[in-house]
Automatic annotation (TrEMBL):
<keyword id="KW-0346">Stress response</keyword>
<dbReference type="GO" id="GO:0003677">
    <property type="term" value="F:DNA binding"/>
</dbReference>
<dbReference type="GO" id="GO:0003700">
    <property type="term" value="F:DNA-binding transcription factor activity"/>
</dbReference>
<dbReference type="InterPro" id="IPR000551">
    <property type="entry name" value="MerR-type_HTH_dom"/>
</dbReference>
<feature type="domain" description="HTH merR-type">
    <location>
        <begin position="16"/>
        <end position="85"/>
    </location>
</feature>
<dbReference type="InterPro" id="IPR009061">
    <property type="entry name" value="DNA-bd_dom_put_sf"/>
</dbReference>
<dbReference type="InterPro" id="IPR047057">
    <property type="entry name" value="MerR_fam"/>
</dbReference>
<dbReference type="Pfam" id="PF13411">
    <property type="entry name" value="MerR_1"/>
</dbReference>
<keyword id="KW-0238">DNA-binding</keyword>
<protein>
    <submittedName>
        <fullName>Heat shock protein hspR</fullName>
    </submittedName>
</protein>
């Protein structure tokens, strides 16, 4: 939900800001945002008519691009690579989280199956047919 033109918390992915508002929020010129979009640094949502719509996440990314460029002196190609690597790290962290959940579920299922198997054991004595045989080995004499 949008309140006062800014999305509420938890709604940072919703593209709501036109380019002029996004530029103002990011402290940049609108043409800079167009350039960043063309270069693939920040990819805003699009309206059916093709207009750009920026989310709060996009605004934060624009600010990070500006910081990396102005404060750290990173060129745009370097910034693009940094963003790609950060996205890759985020995706890998999400995958690790998924796999950890799957592994935990597998451990729980294995423990439950083991407990069920142990619970099915009969606890009474089972008769065992015991036969005794004596085998004597005698080597052949030469």
């Amino acid at each position: 939900m949008v309140f006062g033109g800014i999305p509420q918390e938890g709604d940072e992915e919703t593209p709501v800001f036109v380019i002029s508002v996004a530029a103002q929020l990011a402290g940049m010129h609108a043409q800079t945002l167009r350039t960043y979009d063309r270069q693939g640094l920040v990819s805003p949502g699009r309206t059916p008519g093709g207009g750009r719509r920026y989310s709060m996440r996009d605004i934060a990314l624009l600010r990070e691009v500006q910081r990396l460029s102005q404060e750290d002196g990173v060129n745009l190609a370097g910034i693009k690579r940094i963003i790609e690597l950060e996205n890759q790290v985020d995706a890998l962290r999400a995958r690790i989280s998924e796999l950890t959940e799957e592994l935990t579920a597998a451990y729980v299922a294995a423990e439950q199956a083991t407990a069920a198997a142990h619970a099915s054991y009969r606890r009474d004595l089972v008769p065992l047919n015991q036969q005794t045989a004596l085998v004597v080995w005698r080597p052949k004499r030469r």
